[in-house]
Structure formats: C-alpha cells, structure tokens
Amino acid sequence: MWVGLSSPVTTPYIPLYLGIKKVPDNYGKNSREKAFEIYRQLAAKYYAAPLKYRNTFPSIWESLENKIIREQNNMDQMAFRLYRIDKGQAKHFLTVNVATLADEGIDIAGELMESEE
User: Structural domain tally of the chain?
Assistant: First the structure.
C-alpha cells in the first residue's frame, strides 16, 4: 500500500508492504520527529504561497518515487526468494527497506524545510 501522510502535493508516497514487522519509526505515533508533522508543515507552507512553490511541488518527490518504482520489482523478487527460505528474513528485509525509503522522504522534507527558513 502506497502511503502519503499529508497533502498529495507535499508528501511522497512510500510503499508499506504487507508483512513488515513494524511501521517505520518516523511514521509511528511515538516518534520524536513525526513524518506527519513534517509533511503537514510543508503543506502549510505550500498552501500559504502556492505560486511560490509551484516549481517545487510535487516535482520534488519525483526522483524518490521513480527510484522506488524502478527498484520495486527487484525488492519484490528478493522478498519472495527470502520468504521461501525464511519468512522472518523476508519480513526483516521488507521492514528495513521500507524504513530506509521512509527516511529518504523525511530527509528530503527536512532539507526543504531548512532551506526555506
């Protein structure tokens, strides 16, 4: 399931695979640096001055989302291979990869927030 945590314009879509052991830390409710809050702040900036950000959003997410789409088949195949050998390893593989993708989105959003201050 591809998940975006705020406005479709100002949030990347990250695939959360069935079988992950836990939701990425920044997507959880007890996170110190919640993804929802970061993306909500970006949405507030965008909607306060949409013309200012029209060249930034949603194109800022294209590189990350295109990378995910390009790598998805390989990730799916590797998870399937691991699943046939060891279900726990497959779940760990998916959990780590999903967390990495979620962190990449947070990093991009954080850099954008810093550059706009």
Answer: 1
Report, as an integer, the average pLDDT of 70-84: 95
CA–CA separation, 51 and 76 (whole Å) = 39
pTM of the entire structure? 0.88
pLDDT digits (tens, 9 = 90+) for 3-33: 998 899 999 999 999 889 998 888 877 665 6
> How buried is residue 42: exposed, middle or buried, by Cβ count under 10 Å (0-12/13-18/19+)?
buried
User: Residue 74: how many CB atoms within 10 A of its CB?
Assistant: 9
Quick one: which of 100, 78, 99 has its CA closest to 89? 78
Amino acid 31: pLDDT: 63
CB 46 within 8 A of CB 7: yes
Show the domain range for 95: 2-116
How deeply is 34 buried, as exposed, middle or buried, from its count of CB atoms within 10 A (0-12, 13-18, 19+)?
A: middle
